[in-house]
Amino acid sequence: MIEKVTNRIAPVRIQMGAVTNPYKKAENTEAKNNNSINSTNINNLNYYNKSLISFKGASFYQTLNDNYFELPIDKTTGKAFQPDIYQKASAENLYKGNDVIVTAPTGTGKTAIAHYVINKNMEDGKKTFYTTPLKALSNDKVREFQKIYGKDNVGLITGDKKVNKEAPIVIMTTEVYRNMVIQDNLKERNPLLDDVKTVVFDELHYLGDNDRGSVWEQAIMFTPKDKQILSLSGTMANPEKITDWMAKTKGHTKSEKVTPDSSYKAQNTGVHTVLINVPSKNRHVPLDYEVMDVKAEKKRAGGGGSKADRKRAKRKANLFALSDSAAPSKDSYVDMVEKLNREDKLPAIFFIFSKKEGRATLTYLKDNGPQLTNKKEERQIEQTLQRFKDDGKYIGESMDVEALKKGYALHNAGMLPEQKELVEELFQKKLLKTVISTETLSAGINMPARTTVISGVRKPTDNPDGDDHKRYIYPNEYHQMAGRAGRRGIDTQGYCISMASNTSQHKKFDQLINSPSNDIESHYKVDYSFVASIDDAYGTKDNDKHYIEKLFTHSLKAYDEDPAVQKANAEKMINDFENKENVLKKYEYLDENNQLTDKGILLTKLNGYEQIPIIDSVVNKEFEDMNPIQLASVVAGLANMENVVKDDNQFSKKDADFFEDDVVDKFENNMNEKISDYNKNIYTKYDNRELKNNAKAIKHVYAWAEMNSKDEDSKKNWKELYTGDMRKNIKDEGTLFREIMQTNDLLKQMKEISLEGEALSEKRLDKRYYQQLSENIDEAIALINRAPAQNDEIEEDE
């Protein structure tokens, strides 16, 4: 039962305009409504009157009328939406050529600013690059923008695909853009960058992500100085530092921070970097926070052993229920859904960080929770399911259709893309009332709710701070999840409810609610391919040293207002770089003069993954005489290898009976010996990390490729693989999907490596090896790149 409600914080209500659907251009906004933007009403909004030359030959204000589109009616007020002050200020600074960083709460219309600059660039005959954190989001953004601007005006670049790459709007992941600008900087000019005026970094707060942050940092550092940057971010604690760093990276002598107190008015003239920082209190929909005390789920004490053993087990279970790792009981979730339904606070997103716990909670709610849909909504859900089937969209084997029809669903990384697409569509149509998610909803997915429910203060991680393999959630993560509540134009109030399983958790939630977002800190990492690329570009030790000093001094990791501190920080980065150079020399990728060997040249062709084991395996001809099934399976092991924090109490070893195929077994025996060597000489020595082999991925991909070699019906094969004898070894469909997609991506990179290896080879036998490897890679890709584990098919250029 829910025992009490505490810590209700009275929200600050500030009425601000909003752009909710900036998709349809106004033919004549001024003639159609009285809310047209002009110098008079801008002054009334404390914005300043300054006539500018428009890119359409009119005033700056007309550029807003022409490019903020015909806006819909706000259902809560009955009036047409208006662009916010901060949106207009952002537009003016972009118009003037400034770099702009916008930090604002979730749901305040940041994307509308990108639409403004896209339209301006199109009118000027210039291109816009739009980057996203994830490949799936890039594909979604392509479809969204194609509906707005037409297919001919939108392109996509992925690691292995270029679609309409000359279009005025090109969408890609930040990693793809990073690779492009690094190559452009270190090797030769990339013609795709010609005519690019603006690069949009969506979700800039990923700069502080432990895994992806380094990619974002390098992408910004290597962006050419003649390219305008528009960065869009959720709320962060240190936007001023990020702005100063980005300004200096671009060579701007000035950075400026504008706030509501100064009406977002930039004072400086000339091109510079401008921060437009929208406070959390300026949310369009006020947010009410609550902490609710609920009963904790108690682990079973067990019925075996002596009476003393059972007593100890019970005491241990009771202690766990009092810890910060405790989770709410299943009945608490039922009580919560009933309460929200009764108080008209649905739809809701429940954030449960464990996928396993989320699945168990969904099943319990389906069996014990209230029916949240009526008969009409049930029929609409059934019709949507049928449409997906008619369109050839496969929703896998784990989708709980009965839960869907009752109004419940999951949304997490353990699902297939089309399963998540179905849930998103049903939620947006208000047919689903309760969605259980991990943090997959925090990255650009359009699923706002009336209420968000946060179930714990600790989350699973690869970098735990305790024996439970978890860490505490950060304030910015908490506020990002909370910010999903409150749908602009629909709700007048949003709600965030935290479920505290004990007193300690209650206090932690209080702290999170009242804590500002944490600082964005650098997680800059240098991989071996990057080191090899630098050495390839600058050749000698002296040139190399000079360049990396200059490069790292401009990094966020080194940045500090005190030059002495900045220099010391850069020196630490240089030491790490030189350590990695020593590793490359040890394994013969570099000679003593920092010149690349043939192995080193191949290394520069590889992005991501554990690079040295992969290139060593290629060069040592360990893929020789493999058939495509064997090749796909061993590459799955390389593509899904885990790099984890060193744990002296754990031992990674291969199950000797796991691999029935002798060729695969031999390869993995050799790989385990290499892993032991790498852990001893590389990972533990420099990073306190160690590699772990992923035997399950090898087995899964072997079975998938073998099934597809015998039967063309890949969806039937998927069902057999997921529900058959191997089911207990597969976490979920999403994990299986990622294992195959990672393998597919690495195989495609190995294709380029094999072509380069053939070109470098002087001996006929070596050339033949690389030719055969290239052919086998093509066949391996053909076997595993099958629905539903298939690259999203956006039609590629001829």
Count the domains.
4
CATH topology (fold) name of the largest domain: Rossmann fold
* Helix and strand composition category: alpha/beta
Radius of gyration: 27 Å
Strand order of the largest sheet: 5-4-6-3-7-8-2-10-9
Chart the SSEs and their pairings:
Layout: E1 4-9, H1 29-32, H2 39-44, H3 60-67, H4 85-95, E2 99-103, H5 110-123, E3 127-132, H6 135-149, E4 154-157, E5 162-163, E6 169-173, H7 174-186, E7 196-202, H8 213-221, E8 228-233, H9 239-249, E9 255-258, E10 273-277, E11 287-293, H10 307-321, H11 330-342, E12 348-351, H12 355-368, H13 375-390, H14 401-406, E13 408-411, H15 417-428, E14 434-437, E15 451-454, E16 458-460, E17 470-472, H16 475-482, E18 494-500, H17 503-514, H18 528-538, H19 541-553, H20 563-586, H21 598-603, H22 611-619, H23 628-639, E19 642-645, H24 662-687, E20 689-692, H25 695-710, H26 714-723, H27 733-760, H28 764-784
Parallel strand pairs: 2-8, 2-10, 3-6, 3-7, 4-6, 7-8, 9-10, 11-18, 12-14, 12-15, 13-14, 15-18
Antiparallel strand pairs: 1-11, 4-5, 16-17, 19-20
Helix pairs in contact: 4-5, 7-8, 11-12, 18-19, 19-20, 23-24, 23-25, 23-27, 23-28, 25-26, 27-28
